[in-house]
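This section describes the prediction task in plain terms. A model, or a person checking by hand, is given the sequence of a single protein chain and must write out its three-dimensional structure as a string of tokens. No templates, partner chains or ligands are provided. The sample shown here is typical of the held-out split.
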Amino acid sequence: MNQQEVENYLLAYSHMKIIQRKDMFNFSLDTVLLSHFCTINKNTTRIIDFGTNNAAIPLLLSIRTKACIVGIEIQQEAVELAKRNIALNHLENQIIIKEANIKNYQDDKFQLVVCNPPFFKVDEQSHVNDNQYLKIARHEIEIDLEGIIKNAARLLDNKGRFALIHRPDRLIEIISLMKKYDIEPKRLRFVYPKVQRDCHMVLIEGMYKGNSGLKIEPPLYAHEEDGSYSGEVRKMFGEL
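The expected answer:
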């Protein structure tokens, strides 16, 4: 393990560990929220995570399901780290990591596609990090929102689900693109840092070739007034 790497327990799940690099994208609250929000049922046998990075989402999903999980990632060093994390947790028989570009990835159909995407457009007035790993993870350099949704539809089984976490100011765009590629929005949940604060993240799930009918779920508050994580989030962390 080099000096840039840190090995920790995966949240409060003491039976699982994850290696992260200080100079690369590390998983955060949005990763955890998406992993718990997406629908997994008895018909879910194959799941794919777009832009898996160090495989945090596949690891978290493995706590919920025995389904086969594929993580695809375009950055070679992130792929190598993800594979080490899968081996560290002895999950090679369930989770497969592949170095691939979402735009031309070919595989059998999936019942669930999940993605914690780059939040920022390239031309957006935000600081573009000089670190290439972080730049690709945070900005739509390799693929944009339409590319993600278009390819989710391409890989989804009929009635398969697509789950995404993003910024609320992109919600209209997200819904428009989902409709364009025949993914019907089915579930929507707004995430707030605290009570009485503006929404800062949105969780959305759609069904490929699904019937119309959108359910707006209760708001999710990430923190208590004192800044500590809310009981719901702590439960997601495996603490309660």
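For orientation: The first helix runs from residue 29 to 37.
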